[in-house]
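Worked Example 4.2. Consider the chain below.
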Amino acid sequence: MTTLSASTLTGNEVVNPAGENLGEVKDVMIDVESGKVTYAVLEFGGFLGLGSKLFAVPINAMELDTDNERFVFHQSKERLENAPGFDKDHWPDFADRQWEEGIYAYYNVKPHWH
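Applying the procedure from the previous section yields the following structure tokens:
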């Protein structure tokens, strides 16, 4: 079992198995009722933070690579570019179960509440 502070995860690079950079973790979302980390908020695209987009990625869709201090996300750049995302001023309602179901279905992973 690995226990890390949320602050050590923010800023971590996210890559796919081919080693392509998919962005970086900007935040970590926690379900306070269960105490589980549910999502990593991934920033992808743009240049120097301009034109980038944020994505809620289920934490169980990624693997933590502690040796390289990064996450490996088993998705292509194209899949991420077409994923449901949001901008820094308009975050989704993470308590909206219908929205959550859509995110987990998109990435084809088991929802955190199961």
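The two ends are 20 Å apart (CA to CA). Residues 97-107 form the longest helix (11 residues). Compare this with Example 4.1 before moving on.
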